[in-house]
Amino acid sequence: MTDTAAPRLRRGLKSQGRSRTWQELRQLLSLPGFRKLFAVRLVSQTADGMFQVGLATLLFFSPESMGTAAGVAAGFAVMLAPFTIVGPFAGVLLDRWPRRQILFLGNLIRAIITTAMATAFLLRGEFGLVHILGLAALSVNRFLLAGLSAGLPKIIADDTAALCQAHGQDPMLSDEWWQDSNSLLLTANSLVPTIGAGAAFLGGGIGLLLSLLLGHRATVTEAGGLNSSITLFVAAVMMTLAALVATRLRVQQLGPESPPNETFRAGLVRVVRDLTGAAHYLRSRVTPAQALAVISVHRFMYGLVFISAILISRNILVNNSTGLVNSAGLANSAGSDMGLGQFAVIMGLIGAGGAIAVVLTPLLSRSLGAQRWVAVMLVVDAAAMLLLATAPNRLVVFAAALVMGIGSQGAKIAVDTIVQRDTEDAYRGRAFAFYDVLFNAAFVAAAVLAAFIVPDAGWSRLLFLGIAACYLVAACWMYFRSAKAPA
């Protein structure tokens, strides 16, 4: 093969891959059951994005909220606890209850809880009740996301089988049906969660826009944050709409076909045993365990920085000379809105850095190897912390956010690759469930520590120098000491 033929062949294969993916997406959208389930996901995750922005605005950026490290840490414990505690056990119930009913009743319950949250804060400013209700709503949402994924294989298989029968073929005897069904499921698992995340991002953008446009009204400052409450009310309407869309599916259409014979308690024990088994397996394979240990350290440090960014946006980047900060050093209503805008810019820059990492990682990581690429990305994160330690002004904070986004996403892509590559298929699902628990638990642990070591203003030179040092130690260990091949 000539030097010019090989690149031409690769371009042709990529073009064929894109064409095949687009063709399979069109095939998926031609399946009536899939379309209905997909519509539930889009509406539900749009509502989820609006809810999370409304809750975050309420907990972190309303004038009545605690603009302190302890207050922000408590808010994050509420937002992430369901993903750490409830997430691994969601499947035990999803294998027993009709999944369509979970989508219908779950969205209705979320809508009721969200309306109660908005009403409680608007009328009485009840932060304690908001925390409890927020924890309940996020726990229900965790079941909804798991239910959407669990129902996908059955509805695609049933729809393609019905299509096969419509053409006079027996799907159980047709190899083509099995190939089509598996291929469509692979495409659906690749695209649907990504599109759903885009819907959540869109909902979050709408919620953020509502918060910034409405602003906090001085006339309701004592009663509660008007903008946060209205965002939550609109999210509740979207959740109700998602419940109504779910009724287009039949009650048993998403399964389960046959509930398991084990008791509920036995199911919970099995989940714990599976996670424990995954931990032992990953440790025996060495490279996945090392990668997860390093990404947990990174996630812990990232959690400290993330909470600091909220406090910096709220309490430092607000212009004191315009009277946006009160005598207690906390932002008033106008300052809270401005702080929310500053934090939105920071998150946008972290996202932009992540997009850069998505491009750079495949191009540059091959020559180094995944382990050493993780180390390089940790050094990039350390550089962001050293930059942030210089001064808490907008230019420095925004530049550090962009650099941090590159390092964080680049490291995660490489760690995902290590775990996927070095874990046998029989253990891969349990390995990623364990990964998910570690990933969220590290952030919750960071929130707990942040309550004690992060100053209420959010910025401390000693804090960021210490985080930079931790990143560099982890990078040196990953580069020089970690195993490069699985045991």
Q: How would you explain this protein's 3D organization?
A:
With 487 residues, the chain is mainly alpha-helical. It folds into two domains: 12-254, Growth Hormone, Chain: A; 275-487, Growth Hormone, Chain: A, CATH 1.20.1250. It has 15 helices and no strands. The protein has helices at residues 5-29, 32-61, 69-86, 90-94, 99-124, 127-166, 175-214, 226-246, 264-285, 287-315, 333-368, 370-388, 394-421, 425-453, 461-480. Helix 3 packs antiparallel against helix 14 (425-453), helix 5 (99-124) packs antiparallel against helix 6 (127-166) and helix 12 (370-388) runs antiparallel to helix 13. The longest helix has 40 residues, at 127-166. The radius of gyration is 24 Å and the shape is globular. Mean pLDDT is 80; it is low at 216-224 and 320-334.
Oligomer type: single chain
CATH domain fold name of the largest domain: Growth Hormone, Chain: A
Count of separate structural domains: 2
Tell me which CATH architecture of the largest domain applies here: Up-down Bundle
Sheet with the most strands, sense and barrel status: none
Helical amount: over 70%
How many H/I helices? Answer: 15
Mean pLDDT score: 80
Assigned CATH class of the largest domain: Mainly Alpha
Q: How many β-strands, per DSSP?
A: 0
Provide the gyration radius in Å. Answer: 24 Å
Assigned CATH superfamily of the largest domain = MFS general substrate transporter like domains
Give start-end ranges of low-pLDDT stretches. Answer: 216-224, 320-334
